[in-house]
């Protein structure tokens, strides 16, 4: 899982710069790159926080063409082209020595993000993470917020209180859930209220 943040650069989604014990610069793979090489599922959590254009510039080629040039000089290519090189007599070890690797056929990416209207921008508009380019990268599914009763039940399940303490916590959860639900409805027409909404994660805290 990659937790996205506002100041994140496109390069940070794939690799990050680090130094070894001798002070030499090196590049460390991020979870997204590890998934691409190993055939895992990478989760990009909170892509709405990324600056405009970062998401597409980071994963556009990787998702559409299954290839990307990395900061450390290595190159990832689609399995079909990698197989062609193998068929021409090159071994996987020789290609890896040249810095050429294949994107695993099973590699997948799941991205989560708030609707642009909740992020203070309109779909496809300036500042929106949901641009025309990013719309070509994913299949989109809208996940509605949990009903208030289910939120309260889930929050209560994680409580360690007993007896009267549990009742107090449940009442507090119910009040916060009602507040969050009311604010979320108002925020649909007034984006300035978005910052006042409480996510399920915040309720659990």
UniProtKB/TrEMBL annotation:
A GO cellular-component term linked to this record: cytoplasm
A Pfam family hit: AAA_5
Coiled coil ranges: none
Domain ATPase dynein-related AAA stretches: 1-135
TM regions (residue ranges): none
Gene Ontology MF terms: ATP binding; ATP hydrolysis activity
PANTHER family: VON WILLEBRAND FACTOR A DOMAIN-CONTAINING PROTEIN 8
Full protein name: ATPase dynein-related AAA domain-containing protein
Species: Alexandrium monilatum
């Amino acid at each position: 899982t990659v937790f996205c943040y506002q100041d994140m650069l496109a390069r940070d989604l794939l690799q990050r710069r680090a130094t070894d014990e001798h002070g030499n610069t090196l590049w460390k793979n991020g979870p997204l790159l590890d998934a691409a090489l190993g055939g895992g599922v990478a989760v990009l959590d909170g892509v709405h926080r990324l600056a405009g254009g970062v998401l597409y510039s980071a994963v556009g080629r990787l998702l559409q063409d299954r290839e990307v040039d990395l900061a450390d000089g290595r190159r990832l290519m689609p399995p079909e082209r990698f197989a062609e090189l193998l068929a021409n007599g090159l071994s996987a070890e020789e290609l890896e020595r040249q810095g050429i690797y294949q994107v695993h056929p099973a590699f997948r990416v799941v991205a989560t993000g708030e609707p642009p209207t909740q992020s203070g921008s309109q779909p496809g508009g300036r500042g929106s993470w949901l641009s025309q380019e990013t719309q070509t990268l994913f299949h989109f599914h809208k996940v509605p917020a949990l009903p208030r009763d289910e939120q309260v039940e889930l929050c209560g399940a994680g409580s360690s209180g007993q007896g009267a303490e549990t009742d107090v916590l449940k009442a507090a959860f119910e009040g916060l859930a009602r507040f969050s639900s009311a604010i979320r409805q108002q925020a649909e027409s007034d984006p300035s209220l978005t910052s006042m909404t409480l996510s399920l994660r915040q309720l659990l805290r």
